[in-house]
């Protein structure tokens, strides 16, 4: 009849108890009530960061009643109907007590529950008195239980009537410490670390993962509170507490422990999350992480919104297999949905809920939310800037990760970190040999690039070359796709679209990512290319890069040569004054030689200006261009030597003859 919750799906300090239905049998009601009492008694061994004395007092009262209820089940074969009213009221109150105990022991909500200590103690007092009221109508004399048990029930009844639940003095003291620290933040004064540590120790927040869990909880509460347009009384306090814990997370903990991810892995399909990537969760249609995965009769899974759009367009096939569907029934993939949710929590990825706020509005984060939150973030930004400049490699990696988290969905945080000059330091971390440092730095830059002032800072700091190099050579696929997305945001400025296009490595690297990358990488690269195409001068560059990629395949080479493009490419190369243009042409010619064989090479050898362009690239071009120029020179020299000696040995290892015209 009842199910023990884990705090998820219910806002803290709400008690959605359900009154037992009138038609329920007394024996069924009694069994359910005993189950509830057992659940409540298990909290005796739980950790209470606040309101411990009051909570355990309530647990003891329920335990005493459990003795009575269990004897009633054993001794009374036929439970009189007159008990139903009393048992029903007890059932309702027990539900509420259990909800409150869940909140008091909920990981991630400890600081918030500290601020609600007075309310919690008052609620416990009301619930215990409700037990007394329910026992008042209990026909104890008509019940067949031992006299000792009747005396115990009478004791509970008397204690419930005069129950006193006062806020724990220690809770009050620590709450005053928190208020004092928030006051220092408002004044722009860095609080004493020993005082901050006392608060964290009292709450049992001893690891980075626990502190991060608190931040995520407060963030979700702020989102819910913000949606409540008519009543936003808690916003300032929630924002202040979040600022305090964000400050603690970065300054008070030297290591980012992975305990949280290990816990998620245990919950989720026997460590299955360990080998999963975002691509495992993307919809084949939208290439976005699925919010509501549903499965077709073919066994393939799609995001509900995407597959419904596919059907509305008149399609009746499976998008992946092309198989005609006998039924358009959609089965909710609950297992995958839970895995995606757990993975998102583990990796700090925000997946928009299917409720009324699909796309989270972060415009509210233009301001900090409170003076204390503003002061905490400004102090934290200065700390991060100093660590990025002077910290050890491990410290720089850690604060880069903190920047990544802080700037994910907060405009104010981005502004603070840009203002203190974090961008040049993060750009330097892109050359790190540590894959984690690289990924955290480029992810942080991606978030910061959404801020209006950051784009000029990236460019003026010489960051474009670093980011393009990351697209090509990032140590992790995630770093490469973050770099592509960063280029897209920088390309929102017309002047910078031109600068990116003039980098001879940028567009080819993005085209390569479209060809070889993961689904997420392909999407980021395509979006970046689209942004660059907003500048007309990049049109030919993108076209040249695409042609060079097509020419790497035999079919592409045949198509290009069939349309007489070789002569046009040679003319462009002869007249081109741009280094990037020269490199694009050489890349295309090399691919045509490799796939086109001797007929193509024979025509290139006749060009009097080609060798000059190639040798110029050897000394002045990029590393990529130099390699391609060197390869093409070698092919031309080998052809010339064999042709002069009359040798019939193929010029290329796998010479393929293609009609040039």
Automatic annotation (TrEMBL):
This is U-box domain-containing protein 18. It comes from Citrus sinensis (Sweet orange). The lineage of its organism: Eukaryota, Viridiplantae, Streptophyta, Embryophyta, Tracheophyta.
